[in-house]
Amino acid sequence: MRARLRSCLVILGVFSALTATAAPNALIDAVQSPAWVVRGEKRLPLVPGMELENRDRVLTGIGARAVIQLADGSAVKLGENVNVAVNAMNQPKNAPFSAALDVAKGAFRLTTDIFRKFQSQRSINVRTGTVTIGIRGTDLWGRSDQEKDFVCLIEGRITVSHPQGEPAELTEPLQFYGANKGQAPGPVAAVEKSQLAIWAMETELQDGTGIRQQGGRWVLNFGMYGKEDVLGLYDRMTEAGYAVRVRPVRAAGAYQYQLRLGQIVTEREARALADRLVRDLQVPAPTVSRG
Fold it and tell me: Hey, which of 120, 136, 172, 275 has its CA 20 to 30 A from 98?
């Protein structure tokens, strides 16, 4: 039991140690839970600031979002119910940053901060279902679902391929390439800007959902508990995709344990998340504080 509690107390510290390198290949910038990382046989809730490793798989739940920051300054925005593997991340000297993303399910957007767009290079391959995309310095949006695999170019240039079709190149904004499941891809076509705007909302963080991000200062405090009770609540919330942590507090010669969920960006987001956790997980109502 002591070993289990000790694991609860240090788990986020382990991830902090992992992120201590000067230039991580990829790390979690923001989370709209529930969301997890699968690493080997472990499945843990996503934590803002968590560094991702090659062969990690990121999963998001219903209504969730996540933002992965890559070493080249680009970001991968994930929508709900996403299953994406991160592989082949590398920062060779005097060569572009490289990575491979395998989006087995869900919507994503790969974009670059305008201030860093021309400062770094990248060589990233993305597979969304049956469509493979080769990327160098560009922005795009894509999705893989039960019916179709497709990608829409937002800016730049990409090459696309499919096992049942010839490779193609997308060079103009709003060009679209995709294939219905089990079928050959259609020709490169164009979509309306209004349609892209609708798609883009699927991968943007949503206000009022409890957004957690690096630098977030607001905290939910779930009260004081004995050892057994805090472990039970910890297990429930981590399994549900919320990265809570246990804080020991010594009082009257004994320890009590406080459960906390931090890195929330605003007080409004914290209160919205508190309401949702009480409603959906039937947890005790937490207090909100600035940590």
Answer: 172
Task: Name the H helices within the chain.
Answer: 2-18, 193-201, 227-239, 267-281
Q: What is the dihedral of CA 9, 14, 15, 21, to 10 degrees?
A: 150
| Start-to-end Cα distance in the chain | 29
Domain 212-290 architecture? 2-Layer Sandwich (3.30)
- Cα–Cα distance for residue pair 11/243, rounded to 1 Å: 10
Beta carbons of 175 and 234 less than 8 angstroms apart = no
**If we measure between CA atoms, which residue out of 127, 164, 169 comes closest to residue 144?**
127
Instruction: Give the pLDDT confidence score for residue 52 in this predicted structure.
Output: 97
pTM here is: 0.88
Beta bridge partners of residue 158, listed in sequence order: 135, 170
| 8 Å CB contact between 224 and 253 | no
User: The tokens of 24 are what?
Assistant: 């991580």
Instruction: Pick 54-201's CATH classification: 2.60.120.1440, 3.10.20.30, 1.20.120.1760, 2.130.10.10.
Output: 2.60.120.1440
For the segment 56-82, the average pLDDT, to the nearest whole number, is 96
CA distance 115 to 289: 34
* Cα separation, 221 vs 99, whole angstroms: 38
**Which alpha helices (H) appear in 129-264, and where do they start and end?**
193-201, 227-239
Domain span(s) for CATH 2.60.120.1440 in the chain: 54-201
Sign for the pseudo-dihedral over CA of 122, 57, 33, 61: positive
> CB count, 10 Å around CB of 221?
17
Q: Is 141 helix (H, G, I), strand (E, B) or coil?
A: strand
Residues forming CATH 3.30.70 domain(s) in the chain: 212-290
Of the given ranges (172-176, 221-225, 252-256), which has the lowest mean pLDDT? 252-256
How far apart (Å, rounded) are the C-alpha atoms in residues 57 and 102?
Answer: 9
